[in-house]
Structure formats: structure tokens, C-alpha cells
Amino acid sequence: MPHGWSVEQRTGDAATLHASWPAVAVRPAERALAICRVTAPALVLGSTQPESIVDRARAEVAGIAVARRRSGGGAVLVTPEDPVWIDVWIPAGDPLWRDDVGRAFDWLGDAWVDALRRSGIEGVAARRQGRAPGTRWSELVCFGGVATGEVVTGDGRKVVGLAQRRDRQGSWFHGACVLRWDPGPLVEVLALAPDERRSAAADLRSAAAGVADLAEAGGGHTDHSLVVASLVDSLPAAPAR
């Protein structure tokens, strides 16, 4: 357990997990981490994305709910197995707090890089140079582009997506680490013409990578539990009160 952090498991539907964080509401001055697992698949939209990007009929047939988070970025498909979803809370005024929103992710991206290395994934780095569109679907799909702080492979494929929301009390960071990358199920429920759907699936396939796939390609193994434990171990210790 990292010094100065509270760590908890949170389970529920995606909308509930994004709507509030009860432990943080009670103790907003403390650093916190939550391992989040959804009870059913959901397509989570960014704060500014219209619901019209979703084909509701297709989503219903696929058994995928639609939820929204209050942080920016593109859509993410979450299931009980994938991605590894970890939320982090940093109080305002904490040594890890950054007034510059664009640099707020720096420490967290570095923690994810360290965690993945502990999990047997080499050659990953946190982006520092601002947003990289990656594909023409980057405004639509989170893993279609790379933003500052997010983690990529040496050839630029995204493995960890980050988003944040903040208020006067602190910053709530969302982190999604893909284990097995398959854009097909996500693309299938977007409101796209058939030719666009095929193009999006093809483009997105090479835009990201799953860390379990990367580990196996290198002769190793990683899974949800190992990634979670490694990130917890990689958190910076909080200063003594």
C-alpha cells in the first residue's frame, strides 16, 4: 500500500462510477485511488460528445449501455474485463497538483510507465509534446489519438488513455489501460455509414495496442491484477502530515 493513499475497489454500472466518488466526497483532502470494474459493457462518451454519435439500436442489440463522463476526450468502450480502469484523486494544493491543466498528467503518465515496466512491458513512454491526432477518428474515439501524459509504445500506439475533471477541491483523473485491443465492438455501435465503419475499424486497429498482447509478443504475461498491483506500487508517496 503506497504511503498516504487510500485505495479501494469500486464496482457498478459505468454511469454510476462516473457520476460520483463517495469516498472522495467524504475525504477530499486525501489522495485516493479506485480500481473500477463495470458490471455490464458500456460506451462512455466524453463530456462534449453528442449522443447522436451512437447508433442506439446497434448498442441495444449488442447489450452495450451508453454513459457519459464529465471529462473530455473521445468514446471508450468499457467491459468487466477490459480495459483496466483506475481513477485517481489529487487534492488541490497537493505536491502532485498542477495549475497548468496541460501538465497535470505528467506525474500520472510517468507512474503508468513505471507500472507497465513492472508488468513486463518495455519500450513505453508518456507523451510530453501535446496532442497527436493519430487517426482521423481521434475526436470520436479516445484511442484514436494521443494527448499529453498518455502512454504509448515506441512506434506510437496508445496503451493508456487519460482524462481529468477538476474543481476547487482537486482533480479526478480517469485512466484506461487496454489489455486486448479490438476496436471492432466499439466501432459497431457508432452511428457511421458501412464504409466509414470499415475504415474506422481498420485505422483504429493500428492506433493502439493491448498490454497483454504486447507482453505475450515478448514471451511474457500480464493481466488485470498485475497491472493494478504494479500501478499501486508505482504511486509517489504522499508527504508526511
Q: Which properties best describe this structure?
A:
241 residues, alpha+beta, BirA Bifunctional Protein, domain 2, 7-stranded mixed β-sheet, 8 helices, 10 strands, globular
Strand content: 15-25%
Strand order of the largest sheet: 1-2-6-10-9-8-7
Any idea what the radius of gyration is? 17 Å
Number of strands: 10
Q: State the end-to-end CA separation.
A: 17 Å
- Overall spatial form: globular
Largest sheet: 7 strands, mixed
SS class = alpha+beta
CATH class: Alpha Beta
How many DSSP helices? 8
Indicate the CATH architecture.
2-Layer Sandwich
The average pLDDT value, as a whole number, equals 94
CATH-assigned homologous superfamily: Bira Bifunctional Protein, Domain 2
SSE order: EHHEEHEEEHEEEEHHHH
- Total domain modules: 1
Describe this structure in words.
With about 240 residues, the chain is an alpha+beta fold. The protein has one domain (about 5-235): BirA Bifunctional Protein, domain 2 (2-Layer Sandwich), CATH 3.30.930. Helices cover about 25% and strands about 25% of the residues. It has helices spanning about 15-20, 20-25, 55-60, 105-120, 185-190, 195-205, 210-215, 225-235; strands at about 5-10, 30-40, 40-45, 65-70, 75-80, 85-90, 125, 150, 160-165, 170-175. It has a seven-stranded mixed β-sheet with strand order 1-2-6-10-9-8-7. Helix 4 crosses helix 8 (about 225-235).
